[in-house]
Amino acid sequence: MDYGMTVRLHRPFAETVEQVRTALKEQGFGVLTEIDVRATLHEKLGESMEDYLILGACNPALAHQALDADRRIGLLLPCNVVVRSEGDETVVEALDPQVMATVSERPGLRPVADEAAGRLTAALESLSR
Fold it and tell me: Any idea what the CATH number is for the domain that residue 74 is in?
């Protein structure tokens, strides 16, 4: 099962990060958390790697609906969006919200996952324009 949605861009990493933030905001998502994996691994382990940022994106209305359907769904929230460098490309990946509905198997999550997936897809597609 493919659990992510991906776009590959020929843009600088920092520029892409800002565009991702804007695209998420336009779809009703805020960024609750930000993990700079590159900096963390360098600081904690002395390891080097490519630019790699994890953004914890949340649409409050959708999160509320998901939690009403299944209180345990918080284990899968927020929606992680990864921005990373790969060669001369910047890759943007988002966890497919359908994974949430599949893991939980609660019927009330399917419409929430559908809407979240639609919004994340729209955000990612807007990056390619």
Answer: 3.30.310.70
In the chain, which residues have pLDDT < 50?
A: none
- pTM, two decimal places: 0.94
Rounded Cα gap, residues 36 and 90, in angstroms? 15
Both structure tokens of 20: 């991702």
Whether cis (ω within 30° of 0) applies to the bond prior to 78 is: yes
- Number of structural domains in the chain: 1
Taking CA atoms, 24 is separated from 27, 30, 88, 92, in Å, by 5, 7, 24, 12
Q: What is the largest CA-CA distance in the chain?
A: 45
Q: Are 7 and 127 in contact (CB under 8 A)?
A: yes
Provide the residue range defining the domain that includes 96: 4-127
